[in-house]
Design goal:
This protein is an alpha/beta fold. It has a single domain, classed as D-Maltodextrin-Binding Protein, domain 2. The protein has 15 helices and eleven strands. The protein has a six-stranded mixed β-sheet with strand order 7-6-8-5-9-11, with helices on both faces. Strands 2-1-3-10-4 form a five-stranded mixed β-sheet, sandwiched between helices. Strand 6, helix 7 and strand 7 form a beta-alpha-beta unit. Helix 2 (about 40-55) runs antiparallel to helix 11 and helix 5 (about 120-125) crosses helix 15. The structure holds (2S)-2-hydroxy-2-methyl-3-oxobutanoic acid. (2S)-2-hydroxy-2-methyl-3-oxobutanoic acid binds near residues 36, 77, 95 and 98.
């Protein structure tokens, strides 16, 4: 009896080791992770943190190399989802904006003046709408592991303080190459120009554009936007969450144990990254805005009534894009936001 048990035990452990090495043997030497911005920004650093956690916890079985500055798509950031689905990028830490040209429902986050605050965003990403987006991505070949954050996109420019909609009139503003941004800026009277992020930074230096819109802590402070622009307006016109993702086929090639490690590392890295980019932007701690001021910028914070004046000018953009996102999804998001008040 004991002998039989021993034989079975030996066989079971042998087959376990075989299956493990078979799986492990299929692992690639290097997995590629795509990020649009540079390694020093909290967004790029979040990707590195994830890669480091995975490498450590899998004893080097899964070695993720982070390709920053849109290098996997030759600078063209709106192509990121396509290269991810094709498997050129195994992992991504990606902005919903850059994928929204290919995945229309992600334009939910581009709807002008839709999210009033972080609570509203969390209610959407962490609730039913977030789960629906994860399902949708999964059907398109990509697993959403965690939500990170770029942040509320605030406008800066070199010409004048923007305190009312008329101040935007004629300003040449760089935006990402997605139609909803072009339409929103036009509705507000500005003159939008779309540019990839790499080109945009050169354009700021050369004064080719008057202004731009990006999150304060995640982008504007690290790129020292005060070198080019003296005026900032905190208007929270669009929120930009980040998605930490893995190609479905790549995920399926990992052992169950490694899949768990990846999932856990993603949540940890994204949670940490989200806290970093919100720091100094939530009252009473508005130190991020003080930092802009300390570099000579004039910072205007819109109150709700003034923000509503801007919003009123963009209602046609909302009316056009809500059906593109999906009326149901927009309604669910609106419900979640209302419940978060
Ligand atoms: O291009 C931008 O403005 C950036 C870096 O914020 C995004 O990728 C959406």
């Amino acid at each position: 009896m004991l002998k039989r048990v021993l034989v079975i035990l030996v066989l079971v452990s042998f087959s376990f080791i075989c299956s493990f090495t078979a799986v492990a043997g299929n692992y690639k030497k290097e997995y590629k992770m795509s990020v649009v911005v540079g390694p020093k920004l909290p967004w790029g650093a979040g990707a590195t943190k994830f890669a480091d956690l995975v490498r450590e916890r899998t004893d080097g079985r899964i070695n993720i190399k982070v390709y920053t500055s849109s290098s996997l798509m030759a600078g063209k950031q709106t192509n990121e989802f396509l290269i991810h689905r094709q498997g050129v990028a195994d992992f991504c830490f990606a902005s919903t904006i850059n994928w929204s040209t290919t995945i229309k429902p992600l334009n939910l986050f581009n709807l002008p003046f839709f999210f009033p605050d972080y609570k509203a965003l969390d209610a959407v990403t962490q609730g039913e709408v977030g789960a629906e987006i994860a399902d949708m991505l999964s059907q398109k070949g990509v697993t959403l592991l965690a939500w990170g954050e770029n942040g509320f996109r605030e406008i800066t420019n070199s010409k004048r303080a923007i305190t009312k909609p008329a101040d935007l009139e004629g300003l040449k503003i760089r935006v990402v190459g997605t139609p909803v941004f072009i339409e929103t800026m036009k509705a507000l009277g500005a003159n939008p120009v779309n540019m990839n992020w790499g080109d945009a930074q050169v354009a700021f230096q050369q004064g080719v554009v008057d202004g731009q819109e990006n999150p304060v802590v995640a982008i504007e402070i690290p790129v020292k936007i005060w070198q080019f622009h003296q005026f900032a307006t905190i208007w929270r016109y669009v929120i930009d969450p980040l998605m930490l993702t893995v190609n479905n086929k790549v995920m399926a090639s990992f052992s169950k144990e490694d899949q768990k490690i990846i999932q856990q590392a993603a949540v940890e890295a994204a949670d940490e990254q989200r806290l970093i980019v919100r720091k100094g932007l939530i009252a009473p701690d508005l130190s991020a805005l003080d930092l802009l001021r300390s570099h000579g910028m004039e910072v205007t914070v819109l109150d709700t009534a003034t923000r509503d004046q801007f919003k009123a000018k963009t209602t046609a953009v909302y009316a056009k894009w809500a059906p593109v996102v999906g009326t149901d999804l927009v309604k669910k998001a609106e419900k979640a936001i209302a419940a978060s008040r």
